[in-house]
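>> received
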Amino acid sequence: MLSDIEIAQKAVMHKIQDVADKLGIPEDALEPYGRYKAKVSLNYIEGLKAKKNGKLILVTAISPTPAGEGKTTTTVGLGDALNHIGKKAIVCLREPSLGPVFGMKGGAAGGGYAQVVPMEDINLHFTGDFSAIALANNLLAALIDNHIHHGNDLGFDVRRIAWKRVVDMNDRALRQMTIALGGPANGFPREDGFDIVVASEIMAIFCLATSIKDLKERISKIVVGYTRDLKPILAKDLQAQGAMTALLKDAMAPNLVQTLENTPAFIHGGPFANIAHGCNSVIATQTALKLGDYVVTEAGFGADLGAEKFIDIKCRKSGLRPDAVVIVATIRALKFHGGMDVKEVSKESVPALEKGIVNLERHVHNVMQNYGLPCVVSVNHRTHDTEAEVKCLMDRLAQLGCKVVVAKHWAEGGKGATEVAQIVVDLCEQPSNFKFVYEDTLPLWDKMKTIATKIYGASDVTADVKILGQIKKLQDDGYGHYPVCVAKTQYSFSTNPALRGAPSGHVLAVREVRLAAGAEFVVMVCGDIMTMPGLPKVPSAAAIDVDDNGKIIGLF
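>> returned
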């Protein structure tokens, strides 16, 4: 059996102009990065605004497990499948972070015969967007320390600097550190730390901004620190927004690539869903909707994290509205949620499946009832799945009024997901009752409670007096209308990653609150989730190599 990278390296790719031709994008609107990837001009995109939008399909999933689900694979396979049945479809994905690529995943461009290519480029440096985001972020950090060093006219309280440096790598040693050692010439020593690029506010702003003007305005509103009397200091007070926008200008143009079956794909931006808002850029999604009849996009991790933030942050801020939702699951993963050891999930166990289906049922309930959207469950087929297990799953979901389809796009490409594609087309014609989980006018703390109780099944939310005071101050300072972005483990509805299935009655503890004034949301960090992840004991980096001919191997 070929590995993902071996399949990708055998692909017959079309030149990027030929891919663009399918969408009617002229040559002078492309900025090629080699033969098989290009950026699409923002000026060209501006001229598309009068065109009618296509249908938007959101792909989400159950709570992720070590057994695997295949959300990106399904997004790609569904895009190919829609083209198989005669529809003009485009795929919209996030760019992979190097942290997971060298850490747990080893790649994030789909899998099997449902991948985006060139796979190695996409998983590694791609078009340099993440480097630009890191540079813009770290320029602001340098300007803060430089300002303090040269007299601190703005009156920064060095104990209340709210801006961290970032790097696109899992590096636990950078979580907490002391900087500016070595004497007066190096600034004032203070405690600081790094976040991973995909958790940064610049990444969030990058993915929510709708134009260069909007990007610069959002950057200018970033709160970088406070004075001793708690007056906020903004990026514009440092005159940082112009230079930061200059670093991000080229990156803002969406990246065009293709699937193994030459379906056009936009891959742009990449915030994590467990610590950020988990969606690709608004610009890429809006552009695709003007160029295709159907756009398939994904939201990170389960429907409790990625899909909720897609709805309550991305859709709220952009005006986007999904027409249908696909929830991805595997029978293996559901048996894991039912208590089976990951080493045993290939064995038939209807009882474990019955127990684990509750995780899927809650996600389906959230999508249909709390988000008001029609959905279908797409089960990634595995050779060990049995008829009894498939029947059990279909019978249970029928009670919720949700169809279940077994899809084989991993092994067969687009033709293996044509049944899912046809159901999605039908769902897109059904009326939806789209709704946000909470209203803008709800106070920040009540928004957090609403997410926890309605989406996570929690009984309550707690925080210590210090955190409650910070949230009250944000409310009083005029940020109460912002949506809430919850940072927590992706592995459970609770904050305990070991609680599988659909735990209820648990209490969520908010341990930290962060204002993202430029992105226009408030981050509430729950449990032990880290905004700078660490590498596992045996990272994927150990298997990645380059042979003597310069060919990359071991990348998933």
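>> Residues 106 and 250 are 27 Å apart (CA to CA).
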